[in-house]
């Protein structure tokens, strides 16, 4: 499990593809990301959350709940 700014994501490794795949939950929209290493996956999560927050500010119709 990974966390950033109150968002939480689960991830797993897909050995056939050689990548980690993650999805943030408790968000109204699907937010997923992937990377080849855990360090890169952490950075991908930061970027995904920051993008989502920015998009949320620009589009007030998006709501999310943090637990």
Helical residue percent?
25-40%
- What's the number of helices? 1
List segments where confidence is low: pLDDT < 50 over at least 5 consecutive residues. Answer: none
Largest sheet: 4 strands, antiparallel
* Global mean pLDDT: 89
Provide the succession of SSEs: EEEEH
Terminal Cα span? 14 Å
Tell me, what's the shape? elongated
Structural class: alpha+beta
Explain this structure.
This protein is α+β, with helices and mostly antiparallel strands and 67 residues long. The protein has one domain (2-58). The protein contains one helix and four strands. The chain has one helix spanning 38-58, and strands at residues 2-4, 7-14, 19-25, 31-35. It is elongated. The model has no long low-confidence stretch (mean pLDDT 89).
Write the layout of secondary structure elements.
Layout: E1 2-4, E2 7-14, E3 19-25, E4 31-35, H1 38-58
Defining key terms:
single chain; 67 residues; alpha+beta; four-stranded antiparallel sheet; 1 helix
Give me a quick take on this structure:
This protein has 67 residues and is α+β, with helices and mostly antiparallel strands. It has one helix and four strands. 31% of the residues lie in helices and 34% in strands.
């Amino acid at each position: 499990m990974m966390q950033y700014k109150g968002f939480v994501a689960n991830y797993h490794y897909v050995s056939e593809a050689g990548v980690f795949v993650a999805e943030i939950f408790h968000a109204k929209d699907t937010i997923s990301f992937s990377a080849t290493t855990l360090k890169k996956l952490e950075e991908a999560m930061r970027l995904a959350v920051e993008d989502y927050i920015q998009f949320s500010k620009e589009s007030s119709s998006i709501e999310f709940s943090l637990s």
